Automatic annotation (TrEMBL):
Plays a role in the regulation of diverse cellular processes such as ribosome biogenesis, chromatin remodeling or protein chaperoning. Modulates the histone chaperone function and the RNA-binding activity of nucleolar phosphoprotein B23/NPM. Efficiently mediates chromatin remodeling when included in a pentamer containing NPM3 and NPM. GO terms for cellular component: cytoplasm; nucleolus; nucleoplasm. InterPro entries: Nucleoplasmin, Nucleoplasmin_core_dom, Nucleoplasmin_core_dom_sf. It comes from the Eukaryota. It is found in: Nucleus, Nucleolus. GO terms for molecular function: chromatin binding; histone binding; RNA binding. Residues 112-126 have a biased composition (Acidic residues). This is Nucleoplasmin-3. Belongs to the nucleoplasmin family. Interacts with NPM (via N-terminus). Forms a pentamer with NPM at a ratio 4:1 (NPM3/NPM). Two pentamers form a decamer. Keywords: Acetylation, Chaperone, Methylation, Nucleus, Phosphoprotein.
Length: 134
């Protein structure tokens, strides 16, 4: 796992997390905490996650609405996202800090046909199921 951190401010309103899609790996991005940091005003700071749906249309979903006086920090319990993804400060001037982790899972280079053959052989070696004795 690699740690991820970024800060959204009035001057840097978005951060895009991208991966090399041709590296034959699955990437999972998990967001743990979104919090206001030093210098934040008592105003609503709305953080959106911008991604793409199955029809490749951009969709933006608010994940946090932070305000210094009532909710300066939000735990997102490792909210999982599929990169590429953009975090955007939709309202407020921040600074808002986002923290989480990035996991890279390497795909196995094994074809599914071989796996099927192995599982069939294993099933034949299993003893037949006997009825329970009464």
């Amino acid at each position: 796992n690699l740690l991820l951190g970024c800060e959204l401010t009035a001057s840097t309103k978005s951060y895009t997390f991208q991966v090399d899609e041709e590296d034959n790996s699955d990437h999972i991005l998990a967001l743990s905490v979104v919090c206001l940091t030093d210098g934040a005003k008592d105003e609503c700071n709305v953080v959106e996650v911008v991604g793409r749906n199955h029809e490749n249309q951009e969709i933006a979903v608010p994940v946090a609405n932070l305000k210094l006086s009532c909710q300066p920090l939000l735990s997102l319990d490792n909210f999982k996202l599929q990169p590429p993804v953009t975090f955007r400060l939709a309202a407020g001037s921040g600074p808002v800090h986002l923290a989480g982790w990035h996991r890279i899972m390497h795909r196995e280079d094994v074809s599914f046909e071989e796996d099927d053959d192995l599982s069939e052989e294993d099933e034949e070696d299993l003893p037949p199921i006997m009825p329970a004795k009464k």
